[in-house]
Amino acid sequence: MSDPVIEVRDLSVRYGQVQALDEVDVVLEPGRITGLLGMNGSGKSTLYKAIMGTVRPAAGSVTLFGGTPAAARGKGLVAYMPQSESIDWDFPLSVHEVVMTGRYGKLGPSRRPRAIDKAAVTDALARVGLTELAGRQIGELSGGQRKRVFVARAIAQEARLLLLDEPFAGVDKASERRIITLLRELRDTGCGILISTHDLAGVPELCDEVILLKNRVLFHGHPDVALSPENLARVFGLEAA
After folding, report:
1. Nearest CA to 79 among 163, 179, 174, 149?
2. Homologous superfamily of domain range 6-77+159-236
3. Which of 57, 115, 130, 240 lies 20 to 30 A from 141 at CA?
4. DSSP 8-state symbol, 107
5. What is the DSSP letter of 62?
6. Separation CA 51–CA 62 (nearest Å)
7. What's the rounded Cα separation, in Å, for the pair 17 and 231?
8. Rounded to whole angstroms, how far apart are CA atoms 241 and 239?
9. Distance (Å, whole) CA 193 – CA 31
10. Where are the domains of the chain?
11. Are 156 and 165 a contacting pair, CB within 8 Å?
12. Burial letters for 166-176: b for 16+ Cβ neighbours within 10 Å, e otherwise?
């Protein structure tokens, strides 16, 4: 049996007096797409940061592939796509250069891309349909194209865990379909994928399992059960039918 891609135990995170996460337990296995659902302020982005090791928990632990988040990042096992609002789209990097950043952990001491690195970037751009835009500055792309760039970076990186925070926000339907197809292909190679989304209608088609988060885990299981009126009422404060 392989190690879980993510194992979170009794995780609590506070920002001052605010309890962002409270005794969260999550175990995710390889080869699964897991949806993360919750209202704004429910702790989704904090959970991503805790998994990446960029926030200090008040209690509990996070392991990735049986080791620390820092070790997993150092091996290039984890790729993270934050929400668009946290990215500086004016930074002077081309599409090709952004995707190449996914190879940095595999470069030698010289940090100069080798033939294998260039081939990985070329292949990744082809898979997301952005070959012709490789030289374009990242901020000049549409919302859907920008998201596809970060999926290409994860492919070039050969990551085994993808953390996607609202990847479909501001994305056209054609790009959304292409991203979903790519995520399924990655899942079928054994990648673990954690994806937060507000598109409840698309969850059953996309996700193998769902976590409902309201500062703590309210449910973790099959999408059909997660989307029952009773569970949606618990996590979103809706009236159960």
Report:
1. 163
2. P-loop containing nucleotide triphosphate hydrolases (3.40.50.300)
3. 115
4. S
5. E
6. 6
7. 28
8. 6
9. 8
10. 6-77+159-236
11. no
12. bbbeebeeebb
Which region among 82-86, 91-95, 186-190 has the lowest average model confidence (pLDDT)?
Answer: 82-86
**CA of residue 89 relative to chain centroid, distance:** 19
The answer to whether residues 52 and 59 touch, using CB atoms and an 8 Å cutoff, is no
Measured between alpha carbons, how far is 229 from 223 in angstroms, rounded to an integer? 12
**Helix or strand run (H / E) with residue 7:** strand 6-15
Task: Tell which residue, 177, 173, 183, 194, has the closest CA to residue 29.
Answer: 194
For residue 108 the two structure tokens come to: 């030698």
Residue among 202, 208, 219 nearest 31 (CA) = 208
Tell me if the pTM is above 0.85.
yes
pLDDT per position as a tens digit, 7-35: 999 999 999 989 999 999 999 999 999 99
Q: Could you give the residue ranges of the DSSP H alpha helices within the chain?
A: 44-52, 69-74, 95-100, 115-127, 143-157, 173-188, 203-206, 223-226, 229-236
